[in-house]
Amino acid sequence: MKNKATQSKAWATVQIARHPERPQFLDYVSEIFTEFDALHGDRLYGDDGAMIGGLARFDGQPVMVVGQHRGRGTREKLQHNFGMCNPEGYRKSQRLLDMAERFNLPVFTFVDTMGAYPGVGAEERGQAEAIATSLAQLSSLKVPVIATVLGEGGSGGALGIGVADRVIMLSHSIYSVISPEGCASILWKTADKAAQASEALALTADKLKALGIVEYVVDEGDGAHLQPEKVMHDLKDVLKQALDELQPMDAQVRCDARYQRLMKFGSSNLGIAS
To answer: Which of 25, 141, 214, 245 is most buried as measured by Cβ atoms within 10 A of its Cβ?
Structure first.
């Protein structure tokens, strides 16, 4: 009975993470940052609407902001490809992170995607290489990097901007290598067991914090869509706390600590508490 209740809780979190009224990346940008100026294109192929980034100010300090935006309504969702990035999106991110490094700007990334776009064109243009290069770049940046999972954090599409010194999750966001439906289809040959898969994946914020995958969880009550201003205010406070921790550190020490943070995953905490 306990296990069944836990499954229901995990699956309920998945539903809230996907709620159509849930605040999205640009909503948070408008509340948390000022003077946001979007920059476009990867200088190789084109611009990707799913990945948005640019310069902004955070409490008056110049920063670089990069995030995935899903869109609302059919027209906007198509414009942003439902938040699923093409290779040019990750290469745009790389260009902006290079700029952040050059001008010593802290980096804030915001994850909200089902996953990287799996289309034929994306594969032809090097989707896997683009994500791999992003992982390598984020692992070696000398400036502070803070990542926040706003809704869905799906697989490599999320990791492409998810490697950071500090990772934050909203309490009803999810972060996983695969969707519950995809996992259920592989393990049980039916997506009908997605609720069971959601528990097995340990994709909720509380479990990932217990595993050391994320450092902070921002409580959003029954869902950020019900009290968006409060959640955005609380997230801003946590972002400031994380930045205040990271900025005084020596750049190389901070970069080495980020690498060690990544290397410890799976070393001693593979057991997931039920």
So the answer is: 25
